[in-house]
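Field reference: sequence -> structure
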Amino acid sequence: MSADPGLYRDARELFEAAAEASRDARRLSLRLQGMAAREGVRAQSYAARGRSGSVGGGMSATESRIDWEAAHEARLREDYELVDLAFVICYGTDGTGGVRRLLGGEYADALCMHYVDDMPWETVARRLELAPSTVRTRANVALDSIDTVGYELAIEGVWE
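Structure field:
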């Protein structure tokens, strides 16, 4: 997935890709945390361990994690770049622009919570204290507005 907005048909497609990138980044991060946890610090033991007779390096878990991390580094970076782009479209580069300035905080929050934070519509509605249908409508209005003004003006939070 690319953070180049020109590769997407419209804002909806970009935000759906950002949602998938958010899920993917979360999965990759959890896998990496699990691998790091398996490395764990262990007390020194002088007792014989295992029966295989093989010579296993104590660093094999660490080496495996480092190799896996290197193999997935570019994918994780692309995921975060796309998620960051969607966030900036919602709130601008300083947190006061974007959809927030164009339409209001609830529109930006609905868009960000559902697509960037990957929350179900019902959860977003509870958090914003709105009906689920209202939250979906606000997100759709936000997506249509982004398509109307274009990404650059949407990030700035201006109509023209």
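Note: The chain has seven helices and no strands.
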